[in-house]
Amino acid sequence: MRDVMRWKNAAVLALAVLAVGCSSNSKKELPPAELPDIQEEVQLEKQWSRSIGDGQGELYNQLAPAVDGERLYAASADGEVVAMDRLTGDKTWEVDLELPVSGGVGAGYGLVLVGTLKGEVIALDATSGEERWRARVTSEVLSAPATNGDVVVVQTQDDRLIALDASTGSQRWIFENSPAVLTLRGTSSPVLTNRLAIAGLSSGKVIALDTQRGIPVWEQRVAVPKGRSELERVVDIDGNLLLSGGTLYVVTYQGQVAALDVDSGRPQWTRDASSYVGLAQGFGNVYVTQAGGSVESIDERSNSSLWNNEALARRQLSAPEVFSSYVAVGDFEGYLHLLSQVDGHFVGREKIDGDGVRVRPLVVGDWIYAYGNSGKLVALTIR
After folding, report:
1. Residue 275 near residue 289 (C-beta atoms within 8 A)
2. Peptide bond into 105 cis (omega under 30)
3. Contact at 8 Å (CB) between 286 and 320?
4. Mind listing the GO biological process terms from this record (predicted)?
């Protein structure tokens, strides 16, 4: 119990780094940038909206919705899990787990997966919402569990990776890891293939494990902790890992963005960056939401910066997502911004939720789904 409390306290302390806009040298915190006036080139049309429980809740949760086929799944911090038709928003089923959900949603292979603050992973039937199984893990789950149909892999706040049988929830293996002294509140979600379970760690490393036995296949350090204080040495990988073909893209807090060969972990290129929410890829570019609030486009072949939009500084941006010819990000006031993939200028803006939009927008074809902090889930298309 002492270890669990130590890591919870560490997470709370480290979150203070984000609150000051990552400016440890500044004596006075700068306010969020005012929204710039833009000339709308693209208009978003709301197709439907629905309220999902209390949304992200009181804590810094990152409960992103997920799509499997034509169904959209979303969860709230107070335990509400909802399945909807993604085109109409009509509810297929709804379950109240009556538990504090903090990791989710994972969906695929007939399962809907969430994790809780109480250290449980719960698998629901994707068709009916009935509980298939639940399993106890070592500590709170702050990211979506992932499955390849054979195993469910979850990363816990204490940096352990645990594989559960996808049919029964019984433990297959556990990978023990020593987390950093001080960490941000959160973890990235594992990326699963048939052969590998890949995860980013609080130490700034990426590790790939054999899905059957949990044995390391490769390990690669992406960021080296620097600085005299533990706050300065935080290099968590909390943003999503992105697998595209044979390349794995990853970004750390106070470290680097890197492209790694997925089979060997060998770096193809690296570039200085700092992000706690993640990145996106499209049109031959990698898009990173930097911790200070800028959005940067990086050429995925040469790792050179193509553009950097700094107009949303300190607005607590979500991870980016590629939507049509644009890059979409949410902010703390609840706006969804569209930026041109070509040069990063603003092309559109839509207000989603007055309490903010923290989680990455979800894009499926020509539809984009934005999930606000208060629980407002909105489906939009380009008019």
Report:
1. yes
2. yes
3. no
4. Gram-negative-bacterium-type cell outer membrane assembly; protein insertion into membrane
